[in-house]
Amino acid sequence: MRTFQLILIISTFLLTSCVDESVDLNDIEGTYEGTFIRTSPNAKYAPSQVTLIFSNGQFQGASETTKYPAICSGTYEIKGTKVDFANSCVWTAEFDWSLILSGEFTAELTSNELTLQRKNGSTWDLYELKRK
Hints:
Layout (H helix, E strand, L loop, with lengths): L1 H16 L12 E10 L8 E8 L2 E6 L9 E7 L2 E6 L15 E7 L3 E8 L2 E9 L1
Antiparallel strand pairs: 1-2, 1-8, 2-3, 3-4, 4-5, 5-6, 6-7, 7-8
């Protein structure tokens, strides 16, 4: 009997903890703050605090570290589970342009968190953001 109760408790916990809180990406509008993290097997990168604002198909933002990542402003388009950024700013050539918030990111949105990630070769970029 105890084994059955233990299995029942664990099953209940697993079922309730796996409830999908995902929100339609079309509800992305708002201000988000959080962390940008770049990972690679060949280098170690520091995290950076970022802010992103989404409004009517437009985005703007900033990073605590200049050009890491390089966030300015532009437009975005929702494509299923992806967000495609088109950065409209002019950038100088002295930094790694793969750090510009541009191109397609896989996205997950819950009621108060937004995760954006993309892979470029062996490098991953990850934005972990909370709605402000």
